[in-house]
Amino acid sequence: MANQYFQQAREAVEAANQAVQNTTTPLEQAETVDKIKRAKQAISQAYADSSIAEREQLMELQRSFYEFTDEFMNESF
């Protein structure tokens, strides 16, 4: 059976990444920050309920996600 939290984390990261790429207004910026925070929470939640293989994938997903979003977050504040 597939790990629901793992899938939700992947979807949340994808939504946040798309939002980062498409943000142009201050309102969109606030919404994007919220999506980034939700994605980080989803990754943490998924990690607790994951197999070893899924944890490895989550760590890679988290690493690439943080690299992608750190610049945006630093510019937002």
From TrEMBL:
Domain of life: Bacteria
Name of this chain's protein: DUF3813 domain-containing protein
InterPro entries listed in its UniProt record: DUF3813
